[in-house]
Amino acid sequence: MTTLYRPISDPLEFDTFGCHPFENDPATPDRTTRQVFLRRQVSDWNVNMKDGSQLQFWGFKDPDISGSDSPWPSKTIRVKQGQIFHCEFKPSKGAHTIHWHGIEPTPMNDGVGHTSFEVKSSYTYQWCAHQAGTYLYHCHKNTVLHFEMGMYGVLIIDPTTTSPDRNNPQYLYDPFDPASTTEAPGITVGAPYAAESILVFDDVDPRWHKLDHNAGMCGDDVGLDKFNPTYFLINGVHNGKTQTDTRTVTKATAGRNVLVRLANASYSKLYVTLEIDAWIVEVDGRPLRSNSAKGAFGRPKLLPKGTRLEVAVAQRYALWIPKIPRGDYRITGSFHHWVTNRKHFDGEAVARITAA
Amino acid sequence: MLRRHFLKYGSVFAAVTTASLPSLLTAKTTDLSDAASDGDADFDLEIVDVDVELIDGSVVPMYAFAPVGQPPSIPGPILRVKQGDVVRIDLRNSSTRSHGFQILGQSMSAVTGLAPHDDDGEDKVRIEFVAGLPGTYFYIDGDNAPINRVLGLHGALIVEPSNGYADGKTRKKPMPYAPTVAPACLKDLFKALGEKTINGLPARFPGKAWEPGREYVWIFNQIDPVLCRRIAAGDNLSASEFLEEFHPRYFTINGLCGLDSAHDKATCPTGHVGEPALLRTMNAGLATHSPHIHGNHVFVLTQSDAYGAPVYQDNLFEHDVWLMPPMMIKDVLLPFTMPPDLPPAPWKMAQEKYPLRYPMHCHNEISQTSAGGSYPMGLVTDWHIDGPLATG
Q: How far is B358 from chain A (nearest CA, A)?
C-alpha cells in the first residue's frame, strides 16, 4: 500500500513552531508617539461556579486600577479610531502574548508566537485602528488553553464623530457621507444609538481549568481534543443569572436606538436569536455599507426576530435596533457541540434588553 | 483540445514555480481570453487505499484519489475545467472496498457501489457532463456517507469562466466568475482591485487587478485515527455509528497540519502588497470550523447552497472569521493590502522588515491540536506579505 509521508521538516523549526516558541522582550520596532496608553498584566484567581465549585481562571488585569484582579472577561478596552495605541504588557506566570483580534498591525504587534515572539517579561504593543467596530483581545500563547482559561476581553474602536441625533448620541462608525441614504440602506447611516448591550458568550469545561500553563505543548496528550463544557455564560455571568444581572441586562429608553454587540468566545456552535427585529450593521469590525470608491461592498441585513444567527468562534456581529418599542426582549444564545451539532446539556444563556 | 488539469492544492502559481514537485503539478491554468467553450476536459482517476503519516509520525489507513499512474493525495487532485467544457471523468477502483463518485452541485450523475477492479483494465466507469456555473465544487465518494469522504475521498473541481471579466469589454479586470450572472457588488470589488484612485481620491486597493490563477485552495478535514483503523480492519460501521463515534484527533488543511501546512508552498499564500489572491475554502469534514485570518480581512464572495453549488454573494461581508460548517464551500478574497492598522504617515515601517508573516487558523482552538495537545500543530497555515506595493 502507498504511504503518504509528511514533508521533511527541520527539527529545530518544528520545536520553535510548537513546543518552544521564541520568547523575547524587544523594544517596540518603529515606535512612535502614542495617543493612548494602558497597561496589562496577567493574573489568576478562582471563580465561583454555578454549582458552588471553584475553578481557576486566568486573565489580564489593569495594574492602574485597584481591585481589578479578577476581571473575567478581562476589562473592556475602548479607544478611538485613528489613535496611536500603546499597551505595556508585563506577563507573569510564564510567557504570554496579547493578540488584538481583528486589528491588523505589524507581525511584531500581532501577538503570535510562531510568527513573531511570545512576551517573556515586558513588551509595548503598538497599533492604530483605522476602522471603528467590535474586536476582541486575547492571549495567543497555547491559545487552545489560554483562551478557554479566560484570557480575553472586548476591544471596541469608537468612531471619531458623534451622532447629530441628541436622542441617539453614539455612533457605531463614522459615515462616509452622513447625508447619504444609499450607503447603508435600511438603517440610519452611522447606526446611532443611545443604549448598548455587549454580550460575549462562553462555555467552560472544568477539566481544562486544572491544566498547566504549557499543557500539551510538547507532544503529550493532555486531552485538549476533548471539550465537554458544563457551564454556559455571558460576560462571565452564569446562565442562571443572565436575565437579572446588570452585566447582561441592558436598560434602554423606549423609542431610542439600541446597539447589540455579539461575540462568541466559546468552543461551541453558537446560535443567537433576538425577540425583536434587528439590523446586522457590522461584522468583525467592518460596518456594512455600500461605497465601492471607498472599498465597501456590503449593506446592512435585516435579522427578523426569532431568526437564528450562527456566530462562528471569535466572530463578532453588531446588531442595530431602531426606536425600540417599550418591552422586554430576550437575546438567547444556544450552545451546540462543534462536531455533532447537538445542543449541550444546559447549553443556553439568555440576556435581556428592557425598554421602558 | 485535450486538457488534463491536475494541480496540487492549492496554488497554481506555487505549483508551477516549485521545481521539486512531481510532474503532475506542472499544469497551468489557461488564460481567460475568449477561449472556445467547446473544449474537452478529460480526467482519469483511481481510488486507492493508503497509509497516511500524520504530523506526529503516527500512521493511519485512509483512502485517496490518484490520477492514474500518479501518486495519490488527500485531498485528491484539483480538477480544473472551463465553463462549457465537456468534462469526462473516468474512474477506477483500486481500493479493497467498493466506492462511489459524484460532483456535488454540478452534475446529477453519480457512481455508486463501484466494486474493486479485477486487473483487466476494462472496469472503468465514466461520468460526463458539461461544466456549468463557474466556481468551486466538491467531488467526493458519496457512498457510505459521510465515511468514505471523511476518510480521504474528496477534492476540488474548479470551473473557470469562459469570459471572466468584471469590466466588460475593457477586459482589464479578470474575475473568477461569470459576469453575466455576477451581482454588481461582486463585479465592483474586482473592478476596484488595482485602482490607485477612484473618483480622484486615494482608493483602497492600489496595485494589481486580480490575476487568473492567483488563487489557493484550502480544504479542511478532520481525522479520527481510531475509526480509520477500525474500518481498515474490516469493521463495517454504519453512517450513524460513524457519526456517533467520530472523535477527531487531527485537523488538517490540504491534508497537512501545523508546521507542515505553514511550510507548504501550495497552501501558504505569498505575494506583495497589491496582489490580491482568491482563497477557495472548503470543509470536507464533520466539525464546524471558524477560520480566522490575521493581517487582512477577507471578502466572502461565494457560499455553497444545500446541493454544493456556488451562490454568488450580492452583499459582500468582510470577515476576519468566516463560518465553515461541514461541506461548506466559500470563495473568499484576500486583498493583500498593507495591514490596515498601522500608524499613519509620516510613520514608516523601517525597523520591522518584510516578509510580514501572519497566521490563518481555525479559532475553534480544539482544532489547533493534534493527538490531544501539540498546539499549534492543527488547522493552521501562514501567509506572507513579501514586499511593498506591486504595481500592475
A: 6
